[in-house]
Amino acid sequence: MAIVLVGNRPDSELYVQLKQQEAKKVGIDTHLYRCPENITELECKTLINFLNDDPLIDGILVQLPLPDHLNSDAIVNTIKPDKDIDGFTVINLQKLLNDDPSAIIPPVFGVVLKIIIEKQVDLTNKHTVILGNSPIFSDNLARLLQKQGATINIFHRVNQAANQAIEKADLLISALGQPLIVKPKQLPENYLIIDIGITKKKHKVYGDVDLKAINPAINGWATPVPGGVGPLTIAMALYNTLLLYQQHHVQPRETK
């Protein structure tokens, strides 16, 4: 597994550290490629093409979000689809949205869908708010949930409009990486919060959502941070790495 990390965002640093730790436990070799904040798009693509051509690399993961001056879509789509751990290349996302069984499910999408299934949530006409600073994440997750009937609002930061939408959200998914920035005082009954954000400050780990701000009289369910979405997302990324390894090295058995 090759991990490309641009800059030094604390949340990205933490995610990469955890991925490396868990990969080591299950015997997956990781190679971290640190890039400066001011790397050019051409330099980043050149690195990815180098990894595409390396037969020892079975999967490539670009840690998102990237700095604003870089085109995330263009960089992610430089990854060969058969090395796309995060499943965010256009070819793979098209497969996913077309229900192609060969699609690599983006790890965080897989976790979100698993939670929705486990909590037996019917998304038909459910008001869903997605908070995310990466359009690759938020826009494609929205398309996936819209297929299940959800009504979607996407926000890239918390502002007055976002707060008004959050108060009506049956399902809130946050991946901003800003500690306790979401303070939903009021929510619909039986709300579901999936907190993907993770930030480390002064040796403590925080999610995006301040659960203490929610009116305790309202029934609902929320993923904890730490110990919620993060470990499951990493497990899915490692599983995708295994699938890609098998595609490259394991020959299918011949049927007689």
What report would you give on this structure?
The chain has 256 residues and is of the alpha/beta class. The protein has two domains: 2-90 and 231-249, Rossmann fold; 107-225, NAD(P)-binding Rossmann-like Domain (Rossmann fold, 3-Layer(aba) Sandwich). 36% of the residues lie in helices and 17% in strands. The strands form three sheets. The protein has a five-stranded parallel sheet with strand order 5-4-6-7-10, sandwiched between helices. Strand 8 (199-201) and strand 9 form a beta hairpin. Helix 1 crosses helix 8 and helix 5 packs across helix 8 (229-249). It is globular, with a radius of gyration of 19 Å. The two termini are 35 Å apart. The model has no long low-confidence stretch (mean pLDDT 94).
Give the arrangement of secondary structure elements.
Layout: E1 2-6, H1 10-25, E2 31-35, H2 41-52, E3 60-62, H3 72-76, H4 90-97, H5 107-118, E4 127-132, H6 135-146, E5 151-155, H7 160-166, E6 171-175, E7 191-195, E8 199-201, E9 204-206, E10 220-222, H8 229-249
Helix pairs in contact: 1-8, 5-8
